[in-house]
Amino acid sequence: MPIEATKKIWMDGKLVDWDDARIHILTHTLHYGTGVFEGIRAYPTERGPAVFRLTEHMSRLHDSALLLHIEIPYSVDELVAATLETIRANEVESCYIRPLAYLGYGEMGLNPLPCEVNVSIALWPWGTYLGDEGLAKGVRVKISSWRRMDPNVNPVAAKGTGIYVNSSLAKVEALKAGYDEAILLNSSGSVAEATGENIFVVKKGVLYTPPLSSGALDGLTRDSIITIARDFGYEVRVQTMLRTDLYLADEAFLCGTAAEVVPIREVDDRLIGDPGEITRRIQETYFAAAHGKVEAYAHWLEYANG
After folding, report:
1. Which of 142, 159, 171, 203 is catalytic?
2. Is residue 139 assigned to a domain?
3. Containing domain of residue 95, as a range?
4. How confident is the model over 191-219, as pLDDT tens digits?
């Protein structure tokens, strides 16, 4: 989706004009992929724009940085404040937020330790990642020929910029084959996740999702869905899954900050069908919570206007 420019981007402690948010061609992260990022959303509410689980996202940014030996020069609280400041400066009611910690200009080579760490926070209006039709009717997915990286090859628990080459290859393969999204298996053949989303299936009223040990990211949307489902009284099992568990599912859906909660209609041309009752109930509650309409989940929101 094209990026819709806003007014300001936060870079290293100050707001700069959108067109002035530039880096040098020899920026270390551009060459070696040693950066970390987050995807966060702000939603419109009766109290103005509210960011969904902002502090937890910034905490995960710090965790990702630790895994890649990147020392972010701003605390979690400082990054939270900077995000809310940037929302106010851009006068948006809803947006997608992209914090990025990257290794800047001045050093080259595979040793990243001497490099200066730069941090930016950009945001812009952005619709749901897999499209409104996908959100309403479900998407078609395929099992990718590309495998999810082993955690001893790359720390897949980190949202590292270079690590997502793996996901990008799977995404392009799926799109060129006529599908909307791809599911990656790990090196042992178990289901890991989609290219940028966690996955759930429903079978006989029970929800299943792969464990982190299968290569799934510790998604904050995933965690939110587990909480919502259990609060409804559904059983949620975090366990190893095979591709056949996807084929035989009664319902299935993807979840993530960019995609939100998206039903799956087909997997490898095996029809699952229209979004089911459990998927719809969870999807509706997730959006209601993000818009400040569910008191039980009010602690998930941080308001730009206080």
Report:
1. 159
2. yes
3. 8-124
4. 999 999 999 999 999 999 999 999 999 99
